[in-house]
Amino acid sequence: MIKPQSINKKEVANIKIKLNPDQEIVNMKRNMAFR
């Protein structure tokens, strides 16, 4: 996927959450569990 330089990682993360909130929540819980 080609990302324009003007889009930062935070915006990309917000877009991903809007597209697939359930999967993002699962990923966040997994990341927290590994920390």
Secondary-structure blueprint of this entry?
Elements: H1 9-19, H2 21-34
Short description:
By secondary structure, this protein is mainly alpha-helical. It has helices at residues 9-19, 21-34. It contains two helices and no strands.
Summarize the structure in words.
The structure is a single chain. The longest helix is centred in the last third of the chain and has 14 residues, at 21-34. The chain has one domain. The chain is 71% helix and 0% strand. It is mostly helical. The protein has two helices and no strands. The protein is flat.
Query: Which structural class is indicated by helix and strand composition?
Result: mainly alpha
The number of E-state strands comes to: 0
Helix content: over 70%
Query: How far apart lie the N and C ends?
Result: 28 Å
Order of helices and strands: HH
Number of helices: 2
Poorly predicted regions are none
Beta strand %:
under 5%
**Biggest sheet statistics:** none
Q: How many separate domains make up the residues?
A: 1
Overall 3D shape: flat
What labels would you give this structure?
35 residues; mainly alpha
